[in-house]
Amino acid sequence: MAPVQARRWWALLSLLFGLLVVGLDITILNVALPTLAVDLDASTADLQWIVDAFVVALAALLLPAGLLGDRLGRKKVLLAGLAIFGAACALAAVADSVGVLIASRALMGVGAAVVMPVSIAVVPSMFSGAERTRAIALLTAGMAVGLPLGPLLGGWLLEHYRWNSVFLINLPLIVLGLIAIAVFVPESTDRSAPRFQPFAVLASVLGLAALVYAVIEAPIEGWLSAPVLICGLGGLALIAAFALSQARSAAPMVDLGLFRDRAFLWGSVIATAASMLMMGALFLVPQYLQIVEGHSAFGTGLRLLPMIGGLMVGGLASERIGARFGYRVTVVTGLVISVAGCLIATATEAGTGYGTTATWLAVLGAGFGLSLVPATDAVLASLPPERAAVGSALMQTMRQTGSALGVAVFGSIASGVYASQLDLPALPAEAEQAAEESVAAAAQVAAALGSPETAQTAFAAFTDGMAAVFLVCAVLAAVTLFAAGLRFPARPREHEAQSLHEPSRTA
After folding, report:
1. CB within 8 A of 260, min separation 6: which ones?
2. 123 within 8 A of 139, measured Cβ to Cβ
3. φ, ψ for residue 352 (rounded to 5)?
4. 454, 475, 485, 489: which is deepest, by most CB within 10 A?
């Protein structure tokens, strides 16, 4: 291999380090949530914010971060983003309170929002033609690998070290990535990219954060309370203002005209709904396995493998089914399977055997894979080359927004049902207040006071909340099926057909 060619592939490998860390961090913290609930005295709302602070910042900043890279220089912006991510990981590792951890997670989201789009945008400056397709597939696969590895690695670390190890593990990869990017990645810019619009960005960030805040705090403050109404309605108004500014702009950061394409519109809706369902499930299931069923952190990570396996099998099968029967049949099949998996999950109770749990986890994973992969592939296939970067970033923004809302909405439903169904025996006032905060705190109170009745009622209330969430998930999957799945293109247009046979591009 010629030196110049070798240098390009070394540059690609250096980009993989950054994307692998981002992929890991989206899911690695899920198995640590029960530990954080105890060690940092975190309520369910706190746990939602620990997860969502990262995803909200990521979703809101994906598009503007990509534009900054285009205009200021992708290499220097990528180095800055990775450095921000590393600093945030170091801060999270020494966090001694929920507030500091949430702030560091938000800062991680800022760094991740830079790393994701800019890493992909660098590729066309190094590769062309078939090599470019292969390079993008490798990068997106690298981040996708981090998603299933997150719970396993996080569980193993928690088994042997403290919870802050899930952040420290990132630092060696980040240092390697910084050095390799500085040495191998060439600088590149795109002066024709749309201008950065700070007020529009501020409106989108504040709007999404306010909306998520309202959903998370509603079970605690009340849906009609002043803070929830102000933040909820204000958030929606800011998001609407952002959309209106983009629709009226001569050179918008977000090309809303992409939604006129049927494949892009309904594919994005389906991918967003699937991401919302998947992240909502990954928020609750580790708590059920670890706290209610009593498995270790690593054991919890292992017991999530059926979902991960189902996701991989569904994703691989979707390419064959799609090639033979088309997009619509594949997506509809995936959504039907998702509805079935959610309905099976509603029957889960404290003491339900793992065989049942493994079954619906595998079914859910297969449904997600069958719907998410072809929907994402159809979206990317619908984009002409000159709009591929902005269209991909827009779809990723929708997916990450769906992930944030999944944790917020489903966590709030579970929290509300838990509080309403909790029927505690007589306890000291302080212990009762703690038990009402979260199922993890209730389990800790039960162990400290030697009160199995407290644990039993808390576990029953939690599984009632989880059943309610999966019932809502089943309804959401069914609505997506009829609203989007049946309107999805039966087959790609002729110039898109090749995408069904290319490697999956679904980080």
Report:
1. none
2. yes
3. -65, 135
4. 485
The pTM for the full model equals: 0.80
Longest dimension (CA), the chain: 76
Task: Tell me the CA distances in angstroms from 86 to 52, 142, 378, 474, 486, one per residue in order.
Answer: 19, 19, 34, 38, 44
Task: Identify the architecture of domain 258-507 in CATH.
Answer: Up-down Bundle (1.20)
Q: Do domains 1-189 and 258-507 have the same CATH topology?
A: yes
Domain ranges of the chain: 1-189, 197-252, 258-507
Here the tokens at position 299 are 């054991």
* 363 neighbors 337 (Cβ within 8 angstroms): yes
Q: Which residues of 34-55 are buried (b: 16+ CB within 10 A; e: fewer)?
A: bbbbeebbbbbbbbbbbbbbbb
Q: Which residue, 82, 71, 80, 13, is CA-closest to 188?
A: 71
pLDDT in tens, 402-450: 888 888 889 889 988 998 888 888 788 888 888 888 888 888 888 888 8
Distances in whole angstroms, Cα of residue 231 to Cα of each of 4, 110, 214, 416: 53, 22, 6, 19
Give residue for tokens 């290499």.
75
Q: Which residues are CB-contacts of 409 (< 8 A; sequence separation ≥ 6)?
A: 215, 276, 280, 472
According to DSSP, residue 287 is labeled H
Query: Given phi > 0 = left and psi -120 to 50 = alpha, else beta, which region is 255?
Result: beta
Which position has the token pair 């400056």? 125
Q: Is 5 exposed, middle or buried (0-12, 13-18, 19+ CB in 10 A)?
A: exposed
d(CA 401, CA 281): 16
Find where tokens 């020494």 sit. Answer: 94
Alpha-carbon distance of 480 to 358, in angstroms, equals 25
Q: In angstroms, rounded to a whole number, what is the distance separating the alpha carbons of residues 203 and 233?
A: 13
pLDDT tens digit sequence for 44-87? 888 888 988 888 888 888 878 877 887 788 889 899 999 999 99
- Whether pLDDT at 364 is above 90: yes
Instruction: Note the pLDDT of residue 94.
Output: 92
- Best mean pLDDT range from 55-59, 189-193, 204-208, 336-340: 336-340
Q: Please, what is the end-to-end C-alpha distance for the chain in angstroms?
A: 29
Query: 195-207: per-residue pLDDT in tens?
Result: 778 888 889 888 8
**Do 307 and 300 form a contact (C-beta atoms < 8 A)?**
no
Fold entry, domain 1-189: Growth Hormone; Chain: A; (1.20.1250)
Other beta carbons within 10 angstroms of residue 489's beta carbon come to 19
SS3 readout for 328-379: HHHHHHHHHHHHHHHHHHCCCCCCCCHHHHHHHHHHHHHHHHHHHHHHHHHH
Handedness of CA 381, 382, 385, 388 (dihedral sign): negative
